[in-house]
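Q: What would this chain look like folded?
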Amino acid sequence: MKTPCENRAFFVSTKKEWFIFFLVKLVSFFFGTYLCFSLHHYFDVPVVLAAAFTGLVGSFWHWPKKYGNHPQAAIYAGAFAGMCSSAIITGWEALLFISVVGAGVYTLTRNIFEGFGGRLGAIGFTAVSSLIFLRALF
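A: My prediction, written as structure tokens:
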């Protein structure tokens, strides 16, 4: 009988595989955050439409099959994070910080939560909340 982790695409067992998985999530999350934020901040696209468009574009981005649908899910989670206002995302540093936290949370909780429902929004919320919390401390 297989464990739940063995049934998933791209079973991560070594540190190198974890790091590669994290980098894929980081690139995907950053793309989703940047595209959604840019659409609604620079081009005045409504926020929900920008997130939907980001998810649509992300669904067509081709990744190797061993990653399953995790890169597309990370793009959509990044779109949730990119929905925040320009008062929170003030530059590249904020975008990068949110992406690193989001990709880290996604990677760490990958084997804990089943499915994607609710998890992607929670990851986006956690990433943006950590930036706000960090700014409040310093």
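Helices lie at 15-42, 47-59, 70-81, 92-108, 119-137.
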